[in-house]
Amino acid sequence: MRKIFISLSVIILFSTMSIAQNRSLPSVDIKTLNGRTINTKSLENNGKPIVISFWATWCVPCKKELNAIAEVYEDWQEETGVKLVAISIDDTRSMSKVAPYVNASDWEYEVYLDPNGDLKRAMGVQQVPHTFLLNGENKIVWQHRTYVDGDEEELFEEIKKLAK
Amino acid sequence: MTRKILLSLIILFSSIICFSQDNSGEFHGDFDLNMQSYQEDLKIGAEAADEIILNNAYLNINYTRGKFAVGIRYESYLNALADYDPEFKGNGIPYRYATYSIDGLEITAGNYYEQLGSGLIFRSYEEKGLGIDNAMDGVRLKYRPFQGMNLKTFIGKSRTHFTYADGIFRGVDGEININDLFNCKTKTKAILGGSFVSRYQERNNLIFKIPQNVSAYAGRLNLIHGRWNYYGEYAYKINDPANALSEKAMNYANGNTFTQNIAFSKKGFGVVAEMHRTDNMTFKSDRDKDGKAYLINYIPTLSKPHAKSLLALYPCATQADGEFGMQLDIFYKIKKGSLLGGKYGTRFNFNYSRINGLNGGNSFLNDNTEHSPMLISVKKEELYFQDINLEINKKINKKIRANFIVANQTYNKDFLEGHVPGDYGVLSSTILVADVSYKIKKRHSIRVELQTLKSNQLEKYSDHGGIYENGMEEPAEGDWSMGLIEYTISPHWFLTIQDMYNWGNEKIEKQLHYINIDAGFNKGANRFSIGYGKKREGIFCIGGVCKFVPSSNGFNINISSSF
Question: What residues does each domain of chain B span?
């Protein structure tokens, strides 16, 4: 009996699986810095690539990464039309610091809050920073965990491949 | 059990095939493995594990197709890492869910994580670093009938380790974004919310009258006016008597929490001021059980979460039973091109936080006595924690980035760690941190971090000739220094060597080095790291929720991946 169940479930599992090469951006509710609830499906960039970067105000390498990109962001946008979406996983302890930090740092990114970790879980993010690159169809084509100095150069190489 | 799970999986998957119109089904998930060896080291108090190696591993698999999603998490603790609760034992699938959404309604059956407002009355979440997972098992509905109105309701039991706590939770929450709902484009925007939770647990106390249904409710308001942002929330919990104080006395007091913050920010400048007061607000999934696994609400801690090791040596934990706290943060960026800003600008963050006890302790009510603390009382109350710190970030030139932090922390070790008052008293420490990274050549960087902590204990071990009258056996640890060198090759490699040295310990045999070496490889969706070293016994906190981490000595391996 048990064997039948196992084989059945395996068959069904594989039959449903249209082995997708690229994952889509999941559909999850997130919040804007003004408290509005929006769905990730509404994130778009007119067919140009999107970078999704998970970060938190208490995460040193995350801030390093986003501050490093901030210095070259204008050039990146000009060259490739890319848009960066920063998803803060700060919970209610530090959520109130996100907007003051973002504005003080003069970031031009779109910033959203994921206080309940719904998007984080849906995208399989275990630790921050975790950066995803989406193509014009909102499919995940590349991802990178952690940040060390210079990682943004690899990201830009990948963005340029998409923008061609 | 396994058969049941498989059967339910089959039903779920077949239902997806039948109902889904959309043909683009996708599997995705993630994997995480943490393995550590434990060798004995009597000097630091590290014990060997009988198993030699302990291991925690997780695999999440999600399947989404159109409006449907199902998923499971397989968890394996063979046996659980030493800093985990040993109740996490063996293998299983403690997390599985199915959800679909249609026309603004989302229905979830199985496990889910939920938080109402700031979490003051209800928060179900997972934090692997702390070994916390109080996922709900039951049914949840979320509904957005119009843009600007969000409703949710749920029923379920809360997970504790591999089982579920006794209490049954029922909750509702509603949030209205007035501007969105009525489509008014005013400069002032308002979001109103309210939530209600009730826990049912059978009466099992023969002596005292215990309410079987304990309810808690909260209301919140978010006002936005241009660059200003205000958030306030008030929560109330009816009496939830748990532990008898004596044969005749039981605490029937209500609980409440009030929290608010106001922020202002503009280009280059941001400030946020916060305060909260909490009284008798520990809410558990089982009234008769203690420990963090049973907590079902969350009172956010009002102190800065520090990432540097010596700044986090003495962390603050929220006292949900009673505390008054306040915090101020100022962010400022000096423009590039100015005298102080230099070519790239300079960033500052000033942070001040102070947490103290309530006047006369938390609320208390029974047949003989009654106490409700003053609403606001700061000056004369017992100080739990205080932190004043300033952080400066500066990119000096194309190759060098520097980060400096200076902090003064006051830590009530007796109170926060549950010692007898007078054992250690209050620690006051001054901490300096310098973190400089240098780009050697394209993709190659080196980072050096130096930290020092000067600690001042109210009473010193040596003052007593090594003997204390009040039973204290150990002095506090005293002064520390820490050095770290990290070499990274972007985007794949890192190597870190660090030493934490307790040079200021009054006991010479405790003046020990804690050396750690870590290396890792990182490519795309996968990350591998291996380390060897000694860890100090201490308290580790995330979000003000803390766990005790025993000292350890050994190898550790971490593999994480997502697909």
Answer: 103-300, 303-511
User: Using CA atoms, how far apart are residues A97 and B329, in angstroms rounded to an integer?
Assistant: 8
Tell me the per-residue pLDDT of B434-472, one tens digit each, with 9 for 90 and over: 999 999 999 999 999 999 999 987 666 556 565 555 555
What pLDDT, in 10s, does the model give residues B344-384?
A: 889 999 999 999 999 988 888 888 888 888 888 888 889 99
Give the lowest-confidence range in A28-37, A96-105, B227-236, B543-552: B543-552
Which residues are CB-neighbours of B91 under 8 A, at least 6 positions away?
B74, B75, B76, B77, B78
Contacts of B12 in chain A (CB under 8 A): none
Q: Which residues contact B466 (CB under 8 A, 6 or more apart)?
A: none
**Calpha distance B399→B438 (Å, rounded):** 5
Digit-coded pLDDT (tens) for B33-71:
999 999 999 999 999 999 999 999 999 999 999 899 999
Tell me which residue has tokens 């275990």.
Answer: A126
Interface test with B, best of A1, A71, A92 (most B CBs within 10 A): A92
The C-alpha angle with vertex B249 and arms to B246 and B252, in degrees rounded to 5, equals: 135
Query: What's phi and psi for B98, nearest 5 deg?
Result: -140, 140
Contact B181, B150 (CB under 8 A): no
pLDDT number for residue B21: 45
CATH at residue A82: 3.40.30.10
The more confidently predicted of residues B184 and B483 is: B483
A11 found inside a domain: no
Beta bridge partners of B413: none
Is A43 a member of any domain?
yes
Q: Which domain holds residue A36?
A: 23-163
Instruction: Give the residue from A84, A98, A85 showing the smallest Cα distance to A33.
Output: A98
Confidence check: pLDDT of A57 > 90: yes
Quick check: helix, strand or coil at residue B17?
helix
> Can you tell me the mean pLDDT for A91-115?
95
Contact between A38 and A28 (Cβ < 8 Å): no
The answer for residues whose C-beta is within 8 angstroms of residue A1's C-beta and 6 or more apart is: B3
Nearest to B16 among A16, A37, A143 (CB): A16
Rounded to the nearest integer, the mean pLDDT of chain B is 90
CB-based burial of residue B348 (10 Å sphere; 0-12 exposed, 13-18 middle, 19+ buried)? middle
Nearest Cα neighbor of B251 from B360, B170, B372, B356 is B372
Confidence class for position B250, pLDDT limits 50, 70, 90: confident
**Better-scored residue on pLDDT, A164 or B173:** B173
What is the model's pTM? 0.91
Instruction: Tell whether A91 is within 8 A of chain B (Cβ).
Output: yes
Q: Of the candidates B535, B429, B447, B450, which has an alpha carbon nearest to the alpha carbon of residue B488?
A: B447
Closest of B494, B560, B557, B437 to residue A143, by C-alpha = B560
The per-residue pLDDT for B548 is 81
Rounded to whole angstroms, the Cα distance separating B210 from B285 reads 15
Task: State how many domains chain A has.
Answer: 1
Q: Map tokens 């009234």 to a residue.
A: B287
Å from A99 to nearest chain B CA? 7
The CB-side HSE value for B140 (13 A sphere, CA atoms) comes to 24
- Identify the closest residue of chain B to A60 by CA–CA distance: B307
| 3-state DSSP helix/strand/coil % of chain B, to nearest 5 | 5, 55, 40
A1 occurs within a structural domain: no
What is the structure's pLDDT at B473?
54
Amino acid at residue number A17: M
3-state secondary structure of B461: helix
Tokens describing residue B518: 């870590």
CA distance B408 to A53: 33
High-pLDDT (> 70) share of chain B, %: 92
* For residue A1, pLDDT beyond 90: no
Measure B138 CA to nearest chain A CA, in Å: 17
